[in-house]
Write a sequence for this structure.
């Protein structure tokens, strides 16, 4: 049971096309524990998260703010914005006067995310005039991948069997036993498409410097976006997983451990759904 709950936190709602948000930003500040914000030293940084953990978002924001204070001006890449919104985002950022963070979020922010956690990052990007890049594959495209496969939708179908199996196992666990193996493998293809697209974004902006905000599952060094980076970009990158005390030992270049975010049992609601 513990492994299932950990996997559910790690994979994240948006990656699976379901809404599993259990908390909002209000009332969650008292769980930072003893973790300190990491110093970001590589030009390509992947910052993981448990999506509803307020302490982790606070630590990441401190780390990002400190990076900017040292003079870095990276691209901010967000899992929370679908790639189809990039044109609208670029037009909005080119507008004079420039929009505020709330306007950007309302115009292009993805549904199903608690934007109280991400708006401060957008505000910093606007303050420092950083490029903001959409880094996610939409749910519609994810469904196409599940139905038609990776190659037919423009992604790399050369997926190692062990990687696909590990992704499918995580997805099955995250669904608390309500999903069969065949469905889990199809959903794993969508997760892999998202990882591949995030890797493309990181490679595109690596010469400029880029910080990606994404769920821990996407920044795992074994089966996430780092696996799909070319060797040169991978050598200049660092994946930082923000995990909760008691989670399993998924691999990252660096691991920041925080207290677990209080939340209801995720499996109870999932198993109560009709047809589960």
């Amino acid at each position: 049971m513990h492994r299932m709950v950990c996997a559910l936190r790690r994979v994240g709602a948006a990656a699976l096309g379901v809404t599993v948000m259990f908390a909002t930003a209000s009332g969650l500040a008292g769980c930072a524990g003893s973790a300190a914000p990491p110093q970001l030293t590589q030009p390509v940084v992947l910052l993981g998260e448990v999506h509803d953990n307020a302490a982790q978002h606070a630590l990441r924001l401190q780390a990002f703010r400190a990076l900017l204070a040292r003079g870095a001006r990276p691209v901010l890449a967000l899992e929370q914005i679908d790639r189809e919104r990039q044109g609208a985002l670029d037009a909005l950022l080119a507008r004079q006067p420039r929009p505020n963070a709330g306007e950007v979020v309302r115009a292009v922010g993805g549904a199903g995310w608690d934007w109280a956690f991400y708006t401060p990052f957008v505000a910093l990007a606007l303050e420092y005039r950083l490029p903001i890049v959409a880094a996610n594959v939409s749910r519609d495209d994810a469904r196409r991948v599940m139905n038609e496969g990776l190659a037919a939708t423009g992604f790399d179908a050369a997926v190692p069997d062990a990687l696909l199996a590990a992704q499918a196992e995580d997805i099955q666990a995250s669904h608390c036993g309500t999903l069969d193996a065949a469905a889990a493998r199809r959903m794993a293809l969508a997760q892999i498409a998202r990882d591949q697209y995030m890797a493309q974004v990181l490679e595109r902006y690596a010469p400029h410097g880029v910080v990606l905000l994404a769920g821990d599952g996407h920044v795992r060094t074994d089966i996430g976006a780092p696996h799909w980076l070319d060797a040169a970009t991978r050598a200049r990158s660092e994946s930082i997983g923000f995990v909760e005390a008691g989670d399993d030992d998924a691999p990252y270049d660096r691991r920041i451990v925080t207290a677990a975010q209080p939340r209801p049992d995720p499996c109870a609601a999932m198993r109560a759904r009709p047809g589960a």
About this structure: The radius of gyration is 18 Å. Confidence is low (pLDDT under 50) at residues 1-32. Residues 181-205 form the longest helix (25 residues).
